[in-house]
Write a structure and sequence with these properties.
It is built from 13 helices and 5 strands. Helix 4 packs parallel to helix 13 and helix 10 crosses helix 11. The chain is mainly alpha-helical.
Amino acid sequence: MLEGIPQTKKTILSAVKPSGMLTIGNYLGALKNFVRLKDEGKCFFCVADLHTITVDIEPAKLRKNSFDLYSLFLALGLEGEDSTVFVQSHVAEHSQLAWVLNCFCGFGEAQRMTQFKDLAKKHGAKGQNVGLFAYPILMAADILIYNTDIVPVGDDQKQHVEIARTIAQRFNSKYSPTFTMPEPVITKVGARIKSLSDPTAKMGKSNEDLSGVVMIADEKDVIMKKFARAVTDSETEVRFDQKNKPGISNLLTIYSGFSGLSIKQAEEQFKNSSYKEFKENVGELVCEKLKPIQENMDAYSSDKELLQRKMQEGAEKARVVARKTLSKVYRKVGF
């Protein structure tokens, strides 16, 4: 059971932007939790492509990323009777509700969103657009349209769930109870996975140096080469010490995440190993755990007809719920 999520079945929403292929850091930090979430409540797993175009991305790349991410969701076994996998843009009700919610959010409230200020600073005036500004309101629509109880998020997204709550409360007070009040849950995940080539930097799909980034879809020989070249230190002891041994500590964290062993147990296992042996073992374990996921992904991505049918079924399943909520909202505002 995920820490903070009640035992009674609740509606849970999780979304991932298809801005690039996901890394093992994404897998250990979020996707493993998705698999557990499937058994914790009524789940909606969303490929958030509408959110992705708030920054510049090539259409062909976005389309491929969306197919790949959907294939990954299916490969992880997220589809089920009580769980719905869908692409955000395939459910038009998200955008329709977002427009109504725009009218229940103050300009100042949206302007205060930390992520908007950070991204605006990062991309400069040229990269700023209304979509980036309204991102939290679309996210509020994603959440509220399914009467979501629980939204597992990282610290950087908690503020977005809070503004969804503010908007829901405002709408419910003006009309009548319509939206469920969502609760953000900061899921307990393992330590942040760092780049193999720079263990002081986060391993991310947008890293400029991909030599230290292990993608979920990477082939075995590629993965093994990346681990073989992983930056370590001038010592010889496999020991967890983030300050003095960030490279070895990062590898221990990865091994712990994929093996289920504690850091202490992993240290004990490799106390007499050379760095070369240790890195080979970590790489082999990662390859072993990713292999069934990769095989399932390949099966789905190689059958475009099957994948498109799955997307259509997922969107229709999501739309049944979304349509009911939007119908209530439209009626209450006078449409």
